[in-house]
Specification:
Layout (H helix, E strand, L loop, with lengths): L5 H17 L5 E6 L3 H11 L4 E3 L4 E5 H7 L2 H12 L11 H15 L4 H9 L12 H19 L5 E2 H9 L9 H11 L11 H7 L2 E2 L6 E5 L2 E5 L2 E3 L1 H7 L4 E4 H4 L2 E6 L9 E4 L2 H10 L4 E4 L6 H10 L6 E4 L4 H13 L3 E2 L4 H5 L10 H10 L8 H10 L14
Parallel strand pairs: 4-5, 11-12, 11-13, 13-14
Antiparallel strand pairs: 1-3, 2-3, 6-9, 6-12, 7-8, 7-10
Helix pairs in contact: 1-4, 5-7
């Protein structure tokens, strides 16, 4: 192939793919625009002058009808095959069902961790119709791009923007802002959404996987005698606010490149770290437990909350979480527990048993979510979840001081 030159070799390879797809040399094929002499001459030497036509805008096309006037198709099929070293063969296009099965088989081999997604696509054959392209290779490429995106997000803890995600996996920052790719990605992510209700909102669903419209909106609220080290310097403004009885709000720009977080003046007597799901109970903890550090999760913890928790939890005397005892509240606790072990606070099994008169019934959707969480997989707070499923759940605001242990 080298003797023909790299440009001619590329054109012959393109013709081979075209023949494999169509089974005939017909019509015309664009080979370039504004070609140089050392590109045009090998084309003319191989195909002859007449089949190579140049338009007014310098677009160069190879016309197969003129080519076949010089010699019959079998001659050119053999000649091109000899030049490339790969015989030309017509490969009939797979049916849509065959294409779908082939793509699913390839996905299953390439992404063994995405078993739930593969099962979903097998059970919903119409889903892949949305991504089927003109060729099997293009269809596979699209599915692999989407599957790679899902697999990345399942393990992601850092904030990303939709534009960054599109650029990284599709080579186009606009790919996931709207359109079919975005719709497919959202549907596939819902399979793994930890909160069924949250997954009904596209933006909240993406935030559940740390994908945001703007990273600077990723905030966390923290109260405690905290200092942190960044770029070789120490920052104590969180501690200064703590001295005034105020919580600090940190955005992602504050947290980027933070090396360590620690307790100022409490190295030998570290406080406990209390994580709190809702705002009113958080403010209550700040007032009532000034000796503790309190981290506001604001529902499901975002990237900023997770980052602070990872930095501070190992340095605390112990870590506890106070939240609702419904499936979502217990799941929030489990997310933090996976980062660093914690205990439940004011929503543990003993507290729940003492607040039976204040329990709220679960909806059918909540019951379904609770049962799914109890499936094999080692959910850390099974006692509380089983109690909630049987008796109902305790809202944070329903807790009262005489239940304090």
């Amino acid at each position: 192939m080298a003797e023909h030159g790299s440009f001619l070799t590329d054109i012959l390879t393109k013709i081979s793919r075209r023949y494999a797809r169509e089974g005939a040399l017909r019509g015309a094929m664009k080979v370039g625009t504004g070609l140089a002499h050392d590109q045009l001459q090998p084309l003319r030497n191989f195909f002859g002058v007449d089949p190579i036509r140049i338009s007014r805008n310098e677009e160069v096309r190879l016309h197969f009808d003129r080519l076949l006037q010089q010699a019959p198709e079998p001659f050119w099929v053999e000649r091109i095959g000899e030049a490339t070293g790969i015989p030309l063969r017509h490969r009939p296009q797979l049916s849509k069902d065959e294409q779908r099965k082939t793509v699913l088989d390839r996905l299953q081999l390439a992404f063994p961790l995405l078993r739930d997604l593969i099962r979903y696509l097998q059970e919903h054959p119409e889903e892949l119709k949305r991504v089927l392209a003109n060729s099997e290779n293009e269809t596979t490429k699209r599915c692999f791009q989407l599957a790679q995106t899902v697999q990345h997000l399942l393990g992601n803890t850092l904030p990303l923007t939709v534009s960054e995600l599109g650029a990284q996996f599709f080579g186009n920052s606009k790919a996931l802002r709207q359109g079919e790719y975005r719709a497919l990605l959202l549907r596939w992510l819902k399979i793994y959404a930890q909160d069924a209700e949250l997954s009904d909102n596209d933006y909240q669903l993406l935030e559940n996987f740390h994908v945001y419209h703007d990273r600077l909106t990723v905030n966390a609220v923290l109260f405690g005698p905290v200092i942190y080290r960044k770029h070789g310097r120490e920052f104590d403004w969180i501690y200064r606010l703590y001295e005034q009885g105020e919580a600090a709000t940190l955005n992602w720009a504050n947290l980027m490149d933070v090396e360590t977080m620690s307790w100022l003046g409490r190295e030998n007597d570290p406080p406990q770290l209390l994580c709190c799901e809702n705002e009113a109970p958080f403010s209550q903890l700040v007032r009532q437990r000034p000796g503790d550090a309190v981290l506001f999760t604001s529902g499901f913890p975002n990237s900023a909350v997770c980052t602070i928790y990872r930095l501070l939890a190992p340095r605390a005397s112990r870590c506890r979480h106070w939240g609702d005892s419904d499936p979502n509240g217990l799941r929030i606790a489990s997310i933090l527990h996976a980062l660093f072990p914690l205990q439940l606070y004011r929503c543990d099994i003993e507290t729940l048993k003492g607040c039976e008169q204040d329990l709220l019934p679960l909806t059918d959707r909540q019951k379904s979510a609770a049962r799914a969480m109890l499936a094999p997989g080692g959910f850390p707070f099974q006692d509380e979840l089983r109690f909630t499923l049987a008796q109902g759940w305790l809202e944070q605001e329903k807790w009262h001081p005489d239940q304090e242990k």
